[in-house]
Amino acid sequence: MTTTSTRLLALLALLTTRPSWTGPELADRTGVGVRTVRNDVARLRALGYPVESTTGRTGSYRLGAGGSLPPLLLDDDEAVAVAVGLRAAAGVAGVDRSSASALRKLEQVMPDRLRRELTALHDSTVEGPRTTASTDPEPEVGADVLRVVSAAVRDRRCLRLDDGVDPASTELAPTPPLTVEPYRVVRWQQRWYLVAVEVADGSWRPLRLDRVRLRPPHGARFVPRTLPAQPGVHAADDYAAFVVRQVASSGWAVHARIEVAAPADEVIARINPAVGAVEALDDERSILVTGADSLEMIAVFVGLLDLDFRVLEPPALAEHVRTLAARYARATR
After folding, report:
1. Overall pTM > 0.85
2. Which of 142, 144, 255, 324 sits in a 20 to 30 Å window from 161, CA-based?
């Protein structure tokens, strides 16, 4: 059975969705009797909400002028979903200011507990470089996972988790869980990564949050470490650069080595340095080591360099580029 406060919130939410409701309709939607609806309406009026009513066979209830939702008719996961969506829109030209303003207003009317959770998510999350968007399906990461992980980053508490799990499986991994120190959540290329240190060996790792399963209880507090220096990266705490370099070198489904007809400095100037490693061959040539989740995405990305190039590996990428070349040639006839 629902509590009185839960019923009042549900009733108030219903009254805001359309001009009027009959008593039996509200009773049916809230799962109580008509008499309970009348009592709940009286409670809302006592709280200051102007619920108006008409009597008789066609009697109904409506929310009068000045009525509004209390803060906040969203559960924890819904609040995180809205905040994540607004933060994503904050980077879109044309709606960026409105999105940021809406997010500030949303946070102002949230209960303190939810506001702390969203603040933790905001403070613990950084965006990776905006490069070519992926055409692959976006893996799902539960709002509950984001809330727990961001709170652990904020509180400097270790997490116990299984890594590399099948998202569709409900079985726990047979191996002991990892214990990690969480440092930052990185959102990049439609994926969420946790930058963490594995306590057992002190190694820094980017963990895909769609492939981990948290195991409570979580651990004790830890003393923060300093992110290791990264070639070509000047900021000592650039967690996004760390993730992208690690993924480009080992975390993608497809890895590639491409000879570019330009010096290394020119190639680096056309990409984010974290997208891949650029190695100088001589004054006129360099090697780009990069990757993606598909051959198609690598081909698109390399084409955007607007430089002559030659695919060294994998052979499948070279074949795909030949197919594209023939297709583009046909398009110009």
Report:
1. no
2. 255
